[in-house]
Amino acid sequence: MNTQIFHHILIPVDFSPTCESAIEEGAFIAKSFGADIVLLHAIEGMHSYPQNWFTGCEPSTINGIIRKKVSAKLNTYAKKIRLKYEISVENLTHVGKPTEVISETVAERDIDLIVMGTHGARGFEEFFLGSNANKIVNLAPCPVITIRQGFHENGIKSIVLPIDDSLHSRQKVNDVIPIAEKCNAVVHLLGLIQSNNPVELAKLNIKLDTVEELANKAGLKCVRKVVNGHNIAMEAMKYAEEVKAQMLAIMTDHESNMTGMFMGVFAQQIVNHSKVPVLSIRPIKGNYAYPT
Question: What architecture does CATH give domain 158-281?
């Protein structure tokens, strides 16, 4: 099997409660894979920080104050992570818009996983809401885990793996199986179909058989269910909540050549509204085979 091993995990930090959840999740995964962490903060300007930071200061000292305060906050996070998880943590600060800073850091640091909150302080909140939700999720060359505000569980005990009628859908298996192995998680194999056609259902079940066999070979517990529904995104999120999953895996490009499942608005709907952390994977064009 082509296992996806994470070596360098990037966690964008905006000092919000959601970002703290992302740090915990990223640290847990880093510990599981023996990876290191890069905590990244994008400095956009004094409007993004508490105004009491600058009370009575000279304009010429503002940039220095921001860097000093940000550095102290990042060091606090890093110290906590090192003590709790015994992993390597590096702090980075760069001036610029979060999208640009994240993209540059991913390329420069050979990042193979991004873990970040979907709703946070000003800057990242504007970055993720609405049509901008897919800018990092869709364009990042590596998988991205997004976490919504209010998620506080630590660890990954169960993963929902949706499978539909598309060729791209099966690519998720390459990433999900290794994560489930490392975390000893239950794989909830969710077959998604928008047709009552018995031939289509039979084809879907053949695909589910193959993925279930791979999970069993890896020694994983696999729970299987088929759902027929109009809004596949809603069905996937609903099921993930029902089984109390800690991860829902989707493809960023599309899930179905026939129906457009998760394409565009569906992907945004899941990333922005799933209460369960979402693992988003960009399809590799032309790579349609199951892992071996």
Answer: 3-Layer(aba) Sandwich (3.40)
The Cα 43–Cα 15 span in angstroms is 12
pLDDT profile of the chain (292 residues), mean per 10? 74 87 92 95 83 82 89 96 96 90 93 84 44 65 86 86 75 88 94 89 92 94 92 90 95 53 61 89 57 39
- Is residue 139 a contact partner of residue 148, using CB atoms and an 8 Å limit? no
Kindly compute the dihedral angle of the four CA atoms of residues 45, 47, 49, 52, in this order, to the nearest 10 degrees. 120
- Sheet of 36-43, strands arranged across: 89-95, 36-43, 8-12, 113-117, 144-147, 278-281, 247-251, 158-163, 186-193, 222-228
Q: How many CB atoms lie within 10 A of CB 157?
A: 15
Q: What's the whole-model pTM score?
A: 0.87
Give the residue extent of every domain in the chain: 8-147, 158-281
- Give the integer Cα–Cα distance in Å for 165 and 6: 28
Among residues 144, 188, 151, 156, which one has the least CA distance to residue 278?
Answer: 144
Residues 6+ apart with CB under 8 A from 233: 261, 262, 266, 267, 269, 270
What CATH class has 8-147? alpha beta
Cα gap 29→64, rounded to integer Å: 33
